[in-house]
């Protein structure tokens, strides 16, 4: 079973605020990315994957997230 973005973030001992600060976005925006309520820009997907040291294809699946261009 694959882990969710929130689970991976928690394993790295990072809060949503930590992620939002690093990405330069609002916490509410980041939260919406995790819950799938907002499309994640492609550049942000790359940044999140790099911050969490994950392969973006392992977490940003078409069935769970929609990446916007």
From TrEMBL:
Ranges of residues in domain HTH cro/C1-type: 5-59
Alphabetized SMART domains for the sequence: HTH_XRE
Recorded coiled-coil stretches: none
The entry's keywords: DNA-binding
CDD domains in alphabetical order: HTH_XRE (cd00093)
Transmembrane annotation, as ranges: none
Annotated protein name in UniProt: Helix-turn-helix domain-containing protein
Record organism: Peptoniphilus genitalis
């Amino acid at each position: 079973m694959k882990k969710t973005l929130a689970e991976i973030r928690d394993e790295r001992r990072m809060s949503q605020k930590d992620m939002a600060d690093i990405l330069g976005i609002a916490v509410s925006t980041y939260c919406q990315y995790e819950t799938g309520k907002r499309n994640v820009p492609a550049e942000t997907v790359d940044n999140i994957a790099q911050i969490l040291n994950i392969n973006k294809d392992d977490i940003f699946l078409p069935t769970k997230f929609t990446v916007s261009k």
